[in-house]
Amino acid sequence: MMVPPDPPLAAPPSAANGSLALGLPPADAYTPANLPPESISRYSRQLLLPVFGPTRQIALSSSRALIIGCGGLGCPAALYLGAAGVGHLALADRPGDVVEVTNLHRQVGHTTDRVGVEKAESLAIAVRAINPLVNVTVVDGSAFAGGDRPGGATAEALVAAYDVVLDCTDNVAARYLINDACVLGGVPLVAGAAVGTDGQLTVYNWEASAVDVARPPTGSPATPVVGTLLPPRKSSRVCLRCVFPVPPPPSCVGSCDTAGVLGPVPGVIGVLQALEAIKVLATPAAVAAAPDDPAAPAPGVPLPPSGAAAAAGLTVLARRMLLFDGADGAFTTVTLRPARPDCAVCSPARTVTSTAGVDYAAWARGKPRAATAAPPVAVAAEGAAAAVPRSTDVDTASGAPAAPAGSCSVVPFQPSALPPHLPPAWRLPADAFAATYFTPAGAAATLLVDVRPAAQYQLCAVPGSVNVPVDGFAAAVPDLATRLIGGKDAGEGAAAIRRMVIVCRRGNQSRVAVAAARGAGVEAVDIIGGLAAWPGFPAY
Ligand SMILES: [Zn+2]
């Protein structure tokens, strides 16, 4: 039998003014001074978590984070950091880097109607829409681009205003610059990378507290360690240069633009970057480091309890590297060796004392690769039988990492030579050639060879072209030449009017192929700018 509820004695007071009408204290009388009532509801699901709770929420809401790179990693990182209630979220990207349609399958902070909008601005709109309590700002990212930048504030001065930096960039020079800036500026760095189906993640420049490192040794039974102080391990503070003293050769560095990427892969790494940043920020030390932050607790408001107590239960991914193999659905965490005593930026013997005036892009292009004294991976700490996952691609000769932590470092790309310079007479403008190709005489006179990988050719191709990927082009030249000369079958003189025109995606690999063809005596020409410059050809 249903029992009807008692009628209310009066309308329930609203949090805003009803309690005042009844003579009761306002809603904020029930919450800590720096945890306003609206935060109680918004963050309730993480506030309920014993390992997080109001102490960490207050610390997080009083902290400042800088995300550099607003693409596949930066989007999920910003959305989750903003949703979690970081106090101040600054977004930086290269000036002029705007949202493109090709970004949208993975850069989930952007939308179709914001194509053409600068990425940092677009992402700021998305974060503000989720959480208006967060102070979101857009900052000039040119200081982190990696090139020489005379004048202006140094990168280390810029990062020093924040409690954590998230490196969500996609090039090696920027990674080293940001690393150096964070070391010199004294800021923890959450570094992520993803391309293809692989990703990696670690936290540089972070010293774990005594409790933070008080994890049971690998292989021991999993036991709670909250509040258990064990002898600290070696320092957890390492930097990118400690792990990878020199950048990879440019020929070994690819990008999502050239190598492709499955959208959820950077999504996974970006979300985990947000998680690590939250753990870093939700500690009292991070709050205390920014006393001038307008979002910091007012004077007289006690900061959260001691770092040791607040840190219990959450372990920052410092001096460890998480490797994600999306193709296999596998996560592996490996422990990195301690800081290098001769590290160029974080050791007492450092030679890098400022990023000012340093052209990191040129350095990353031209620095000869040297062997490191020891491999970066010390032991497989969790979950892996093998000490080094296949995706780290360790150079067995030197014991050094073959492909350091650039955006694409986890995938060993095929080295390729820089495209040769060709005389102007060997090159054709894309628009002019396309106009003649689509005439009966033009098509009949041309053997159009597309040297892109087969997968790209299957994606979209010029009608009538043939696909010979550049890797096997040189070997195929004799056969292709026969097809030219095969014009004999069509009658005398046919060979004289047929020509080999080589095209690729952007006009680089086609130059390699033209050089190979010319070396074999075939007077081939290529298309300037490749299919990217071909009028009406689908962009990808
Ligand atoms: Zn170092």
UniProtKB/TrEMBL annotation:
Residues 442-535 form the Rhodanese domain. GO terms for cellular component: cytoplasm. It holds the Pfam family Rhodanese. One of its GO terms (biological process) is tRNA wobble position uridine thiolation. PROSITE patterns: RHODANESE_3 (PS50206). GO terms for molecular function: nucleotidyltransferase activity; thiosulfate-cyanide sulfurtransferase activity; URM1 activating enzyme activity. It comes from the Eukaryota. This is Rhodanese domain-containing protein. It comes from Porphyra umbilicalis (Purple laver).
